[in-house]
Structure formats: structure tokens, C-alpha cells
Amino acid sequence: MTNEQIHKLATNAANAAAAACTPTPMMVGTPTTPWGSSIDRTKPTYYVSEGPCGFAWVKMGGNTSYGRWAKKAGLASKAYGGGVSINPSIMSQSAERNAAWARAYAQVLRQYGIECYVDSRLD
Q1: How far apart are CA 58 and CA 107, in angstroms?
Q2: Domains held by the chain: number
Q3: 57-94 pLDDT tens trace
Q4: pTM for the full model?
Q5: Rounded CA separation 77/61 (Å)
Q6: Residue 65 contacts by C-beta under 8 Å, 6 or more apart in sequence?
Q7: 20 to 30 A from 76, CA-CA: which of 29, 51, 59, 110?
Q8: Which of 102, 98, 58 is nearest to 79 (CA)?
Q9: Residue 35: inside a domain, yes or no?
Q10: 84 phi and psi angles, rounded to 5 deg
Q11: What's the rounded Cα separation, in Å, for the pair 59 and 6?
């Protein structure tokens, strides 16, 4: 199977996983005490249906066949600490949705013997 075919399979699986993901919503507001977790309901509060904002990516060696191909195709970029990373192609700020995308993409790559891992961070 070609790298392009693997990428299409991985992207389809990742997009389906992201669409199926239901992020845990959160409330944002002013705490009642400086380090408290109780929200002061007399001040504005906001419901965030997509949960915390954040990023996720799939990282792999830049000298692998797939890594070189992905970089040349404009799908991957140099990763911090070495290698290359592929970021979700979905337009979402949801940390959970982006992580679901990256996990599904990486799972397909691993099925084809491509060593990679998923990393993420909150924004």
C-alpha cells in the first residue's frame, strides 16, 4: 500500500473519530476564592460545549519513509525535539476532539508498521 493510500485511510478514520467524539463540556467563571473551584454565580459564567482548548499531533521519525513522504507532501512539519509531526486536519479548538483525531490517525499508521505516537497539550 502506498503512503498516500495509508494517509487517506488514516485521515478517514481520524475524521470519523473526531466527529464521533463528544467532548466533556465545562463552565468557566470567576472563582469565589483566589484558588477555589467554586464559581461565583453573581459574576458572568460561560458554558463551553467543546471543553478545554488544546492541541494534539502524531509524531514520528523524520527519516522514515512515511515521515519523509508526509513532509514532502506538506502534511507534516519539523517536530520539536526531532522527527516530524502531523496535526489534525479538522478545524477544532477542542483538546478532546483533536486528541481523538490524532489517536485514530496513529492507530492506522501502526497497523501498517509505521512507528508513531500521539502527544497533546492544553492551550
Answers
A1: 10
A2: 1
A3: 999 999 999 999 999 999 999 998 899 999 998 889 99
A4: 0.89
A5: 11
A6: 3
A7: 51
A8: 58
A9: no
A10: -130, 160
A11: 16
